[in-house]
Design brief:
293 residues, mainly alpha, globular
């Protein structure tokens, strides 16, 4: 019975990683258009995902508004963490190489693990810690490019963004423990940050038309929203089924494996293929060590 229980949360974590990788491919298709603005898309994307979860709660009659006296501080913290995380991630990509930023973003997992161990009172074995380290090494190998790194403010933005996202995940896990309906909280987690993001640039609303300028672009936006929505619900359902946040977070990073595979087959991204394969093998080995300990 315990084995089936563990397989359930592990399967959902991997399914979420698979879907978020697919969402990233569609997002890349959308953002590859020169007319597409990453800031505008971030606000719009979060708003659409929030709409998916709101519609789900209404169709299934599962809307739930919990006693905010217990979590209102965490919800305010969540809004700020995601809004600032988005803002600093955009700045990171503006000033740093994409490959360098991707490596630094993976440090968010470290913050998720540390905060989960401290605030959620979770425990990890030495083998699980080793497995997590191997996963992170795999991510670094996969995305590393010899670009002659020179530490700049883009790298600082990436590290700060990863800090916000890492802490936000642990904060989300705490709040979700107070909800019966995960979808209700998912609406809040995307709706409030989308408004906070829009507050930085209110004129962004005038640029939304570009995402409906062609059937291909609309389909890519819709696909990314649906896949991402499923990945999020799978991730937090995995926690509800007994997975530890400190373990779910690094395993979820295997989404980079699927991202590389999707990029190879659908976007013909063959650059540094053997290096990526080595990185994937490291990450896969790390996951096996984590779940077998």
């Amino acid at each position: 019975m315990m084995v089936m229980f563990e397989i359930s949360w592990l399967f959902l974590t991997l399914a979420g990683a698979f879907c978020v990788a697919g969402a990233r491919i569609f997002q890349k298709i959308v953002l590859s258009d020169k007319k597409s603005d990453a800031f505008v898309f971030s606000f719009f994307f979060q708003l659409l995902v929030a709409g998916v979860f709101l519609a789900y709660t209404q169709l299934t009659n599962t809307w739930e508004f919990p006693n905010l006296t217990m979590v209102w501080k965490n919800i305010l913290l969540m809004t700020g963490l995601y809004a600032l995380g988005n803002l600093f991630s955009f700045k990171a990509y503006k000033y740093a190489e994409a490959s360098e930023a991707s490596i630094l973003f993976s440090t968010g997992t470290i913050w998720s693990i540390v905060t989960a161990l401290i605030f959620l009172d979770e425990k990890l074995s030495i083998y699980q810690l080793l497995g997590i380290l191997i996963v992170i090494v795999g991510i670094v190998i996969t995305y590393f490019e010899k670009t002659g790194w020179k530490f700049n403010k883009g790298h600082i933005f990436a590290l700060v963004s990863s800090l916000f996202y890492g802490v936000a995940f642990t904060n989300d896990v705490y709040i979700i423990s107070k909800y019966q309906s995960i979808a209700s909280y998912m609406f809040i987690i995307f709706f409030l940050p989308s408004l906070a993001t829009l507050a930085f640039r209110p004129r962004s609303l005038s640029k939304l038309g570009v995402y409906f300028s062609s059937f291909k672009k609309t389909l890519a936006v819709t696909s990314s929203v649906v896949l991402y929505s499923f990945s999020v619900i799978a991730l937090f359902t995995a926690y509800k089924l007994g997975g530890q946040a400190s373990i779910i977070s690094p395993i979820f990073q295997t989404s980079m494996i699927f991202t590389v595979l999707f990029g190879y087959f659908f976007l013909k991204e063959k650059k540094r293929l053997w290096q990526k394969i080595v990185g994937i093998l490291f990450a896969f080995g790390g996951v096996l060590l984590i779940v077998s300990s």
